[in-house]
Amino acid sequence: MAILVDQDTRVICQGMTGWAGTHYSAAMMEYGTNVVGGVRPGKGGSHHINLPMFNAVAEAMTETGANASMVFVPPPTAADAMIEAIEAEMPLVVALTERVPVQDMLRVRDCLKGSRTVLVGPNSQGILAPGLCKIGVMATGSERKGGIGVISRSASLTSEVTAQLSQAGLGQSTTVGIGGDAVHGLSMRDSLELFLHDSETQGVVAIGEIGGAEEQELADYMAEVKPKIPVVALVVGRHAPVERRMGHAGAFQKGIGDAQSKIAALATAGAIIADSPHLVGETMRAALQVAAA
Q1: How many Å apart are CA 156 and CA 280, to the nearest integer?
Q2: pTM exceeds 0.90 for this model
Q3: Which among 73, 157, 162, 183 is placed 20 to 30 Å from 275, CA to CA?
């Protein structure tokens, strides 16, 4: 069973009239996602790609029954768009925008406290429940429906791992791109908790990288709850220079966040470590065989 989204998810796009919003909304509809409208101040009452446009998220929710929003608003105003959706009590917000200023995301984080909204991202590739719902920018074609959950900080590695799992005969329940920025919503720990509460999830792949403490927090949670299903972990960036920014905003090491310490923490907590990106699918297949023995 999928987490966060399903066949009943009704999606609006904040920033739909821009190139990215237009392109990916259309791609999502082609996949089968139920996109029900868009939000762009000043465009209310018009139509775009044959969908109604609204001036505000609350109005769009009332008129369409939307229960999820994706944010394709440019970085300077992306935080305001997220906050609008949170204040409208949108259950799920998926923020695809990259390079949202950290100070802006601190405002978003404060707004999330005590809210009913689950925020995924920003700088997320999105959420994909194969055959049910796609919210985001991920490529499709190699995914298969099944019982493996995928949690990832990396968009490109998510695509690679999804293809590997399918090739190994293992379908996916949901892939969740939590986003690579230093300050974001749903964490790796939060995602694993959701998967562990899904009785149909048979295993989970966690894709981590250098920077921050997401993987250590995931390891702490695993040590606490001791998952009864296999958790395969991949952490990339083993050879990255320490205390140097590598790639996007989340991949910055200063005292913590190096790959080796993350790998050690996850292994100690019971995760099965995939030694290389190309081994994730086979590592999960072998882990499931051991669990079933």
Answers
A1: 14
A2: yes
A3: 183
